[in-house]
Amino acid sequence: MSRRWLSCPVCTMLGLAGLALLAWMLIGRGDAKADAVRQRTEADAAQVLGAAGFPWASLKIDNEVGRIVGDAPSPAQRAAAYAAASVTLLPMMGVPGVFARLEDGQSSPALTLPQVSAPAPAAAPVVAAASRPPVAASGPLTAADCQVAMAKVLEARQIRFKLASAELDPSSVPLLESLHQLSMRCPQARMRVDGHTDAQGDAAANLRLSQRRAQAVVDALVKRGVPTSRLQAQGFGEDRLLDQGTTPEAHERNRRIEFHLASKAP
């Protein structure tokens, strides 16, 4: 087979069709040359695939099954070689004694996905060599110290309300007195009282309840002598849960009042 014949796709197809006809005639006569025809078909297919740009690919015929074999450089080139063989070797398919169907028997490197680097662990927060000194038991406090002192008081106890109500529970009176005394030691600080609920019930109703509860605390502090101008009530409902659980303990933790302090603007 000359290279001039290989360079012409139409000629290639005609040549293979002629080879198929010859195979049909030989197989039909039971001619012993059928094996030679299959070998010639394999040789010609290898030349056709090489000319098409797939020099590693060749055809192997076994029990009327034609397999494209060879070590493809990549999965993409393997697929391209098989697609080209399915077209260029089409005239041979269906001919008894040659091959009735075509299969892909090539090998190729495994398709590897790019390695994704694991995110670097977050740097540990830098801890100051000296911790903040304890809040003084008496005397004036800065807004920052007052915030720390109130947070510590609320860590041990929480302001409580009657069930589904903004009415303060009488058991919270001592706690309100402690918060009032601390607030009077930082008269330069403005205080925002935040109300939070758990996630049970209607979200809109929880938002309204949290606002009423925050306002109830503000009113209690004003009643004890804290100027109204220093106080603001803000309800957040169930938007800022501390615990996503559904246990009674989780609901209890989420129902809370928080204090946020800032120095007055000069």
From TrEMBL:
DNA repair found in the keyword field: no
Q: Provide the OmpA-like domain boundaries.
A: 148-265
Basic and acidic residues: compositionally biased ranges: 249-266
PANTHER family for the chain: LIPOPROTEIN YIAD-RELATED, STATOR ELEMENT OF FLAGELLAR MOTOR COMPLEX
Q: Which GO terms describe its cellular component?
A: cell outer membrane
InterPro entries in UniProt: Bact_OuterMem_StrucFunc, OMP_bac, OmpA-like, OmpA-like_sf
Q: Which domain of life is it from?
A: Bacteria
* Stretches the record annotates as Disordered: 237-266
Q: Which organism is it from?
A: Sphaerotilus montanus
Q: What protein name applies here? A: Outer membrane protein OmpA-like peptidoglycan-associated protein
Keywords associated with the record? Cell outer membrane, Membrane
Major localization listed first in the record, in broad terms: membrane
List where in the cell it is found. Answer: Cell outer membrane
